Here is the input.
Amino acid sequence: MATPAPPLPPPQAARRRHSKLVRCIAIVLLALIVLVCIVVLTIWLVIKPKRLVYTIEDGSIYGFNLTTKNHLNATFNFVLRSYNPNRRVSIYYDKLEVMVYYSDEVVAFNTVDPFFQPHRNVTRLGVKPVAQDVSMLGSEARDLRLEKSAGVVELDILVKAKIRFKVGVWKSRRRTLRILCSPVTVHFSSSKNFERTFCDIDL
Here is the structure.
């Protein structure tokens, strides 16, 4: 005689077990999230990261030539001061691009060699964006000629950098840093009258 099959568990009991499993998973996930938040907060309190400070310390223009066809040739010479005020955070600058804007138009470009900046350090970079046969719009070229005649020009400098932070042996993933210095007033005749320009950063 065949043995009868065991009775199936009531639906309510199955639902209760499923509900307990879901609650356990939710509690574990919540505990992990809280743990990660505590770790991040602890690291932040220990490191106490401070905002990086960038300024343009000096600026000049060499070999300026704006042709009758509105093509610009020039070399811009700037000193970018980078200040890292942090006690424990160092910075790898893996890639740097420097662009000079005139009236929202890029007129010069160059790159800077990668470098490492220790904590509580000031580094001065000589950057030389070059305008090589850059075609300008008629209105911008006309305004630039007028400013050249006046002996002074206002420019915007944008620096795009790929950086990594270093704390002890830990290194962060690569992040994009944007440094905007505006307006930068440059005298054509001399850099002696140059006034320091503070920059805004976006990280």
The first helix runs from residue 11 to 47. The chain has one domain: 53-202. Residues 53-202 form a domain with the Immunoglobulin-like fold (CATH 2.60.40).
